[in-house]
Amino acid sequence: MLKTFVSVGTTTFDMTITSLSGEKVRYRPGVPAVDLHRTIPSIIVDAEQRAENVILRPHSHHAFFIQLDDLAATTLPRIEPVALLTLETSPGSYQAWVAIKAEEANKNFGLRLRQGTGADPNASGATRIAGSRNFKPKYAPSYPVVTLLAYSPRRITGRSNLEALDLVAKPREQLHVKATMPPRTMSKAWPCYKLSLERAPKKADGTPDRSRADFAFALTALSWGKPPSEVIERLAASSARAPEWRDSYAWMREVERTVVHAAKYARVAQ
After folding, report:
1. Phi then psi dihedrals of residue 209, to 5 deg
2. Domain count of the chain?
3. Domain check: are 196 and 235 in the same one?
4. How much is the pTM?
5. What's 110's domain CATH number?
6. Is the separation of the CB atoms in 129 and 121 below 8 Å?
7. 29 Cβ neighbours under 8 A, 6+ residues apart
8. What is the pLDDT of residue 182?
9. For residue 205, with 0-12 CB atoms within 10 Å meaning exposed, 13-18 middle and 19 or more buried, which class applies?
10. In contact, 218 and 178? CB cutoff 8 Å
11. Is the same domain home to 199 and 104?
12. Does residue 135 share a domain with residue 240?
């Protein structure tokens, strides 16, 4: 996995170690790829003994990375011809990374690619390294190993290739969420999170996709004129995530990312 990222110009990785509850334990920015390649085996062993997650964010001067998280199994065959690598982060949960030419990148294209492939719009651009365990409370006591499914070194694709494969949403296409303006008399009202959850797409196990529900709620609240800071607080209190995450640092960061991505999408769709 490291070598594949290096093959497209990655020279450093930001490394974050998080606990079972999602709290940040350690953070090392700009770790040289050559050093990480040498030390990663012992890092993974140590993390497994401590029930900690090893999360990496790659940085390349030649490529722009787009992380496609929470992909459906049926979507993988469409992505694999252009993907740099694909992962199974937990049973039935798939992730792909696409590298495009740096000169073709812009702030909106990644969101449009996630929209077109049905990926999580809130992907952070960092991922657990293959070979490490995915430590989350819901997986206890059998924590799954992150598996590298496929990799294609040196694969940098162009935007035209992705568009030709019909993987990129049109700039103004909606993201399967309903964000409607309330009547003027309801200016103090808030969207109903329960309704966002009911309308969210279903995952493979038949349960609502909570990250999509969070995004829909945030997008609707923002479209109703709610300040982002208030949306963050409201979503943190309303979302149907596991209670043990509610007050954690990692949970608040995830909520903040969701609201930021919703605000970006609102600007793209205008």
Report:
1. -80, 105
2. 2
3. yes
4. 0.70
5. 3.30.70.1790
6. no
7. 14
8. 47
9. exposed
10. no
11. no
12. no
φ, ψ at 215 (rounded to 5°): -65, -45
Q: Is 159 helix (H, G, I), strand (E, B) or coil?
A: helix
Number of residues in the chain? 270
Please give the pLDDT value at position 267. Answer: 64
**Residue labelled with tokens 């401590």:** 50
Tokens representing 205 are 């196990």
Q: Do 12 and 43 fall into the same domain?
A: yes
d(CA 240, CA 53): 23
Per cent of the chain over pLDDT 70 is 87
- 214-259 pLDDT, tens digit each: 888 988 988 888 888 888 888 888 876 655 555 555 667 778 888 8
Q: Where are the alpha helices (DSSP H) in the chain?
A: 2-6, 33-50, 76-79, 109-117, 159-164, 193-199, 210-223, 228-238, 249-269
**What is the token pair recorded at 153?**
């070194």
Low-confidence ranges of the chain (pLDDT < 70): 107, 172-187, 204, 240-251, 266-270
The one-character DSSP state at 123 is -
149, 130 Cβ separation under 8 angstroms: no
- Alpha-carbon span 235 to 252, nearest angstrom: 10
Sign of CA dihedral 189, 195, 201, 206: positive
Contact 165, 82 (CB under 8 A): yes
**pLDDT at site 187:** 52
Range of 133's domain?
2-164
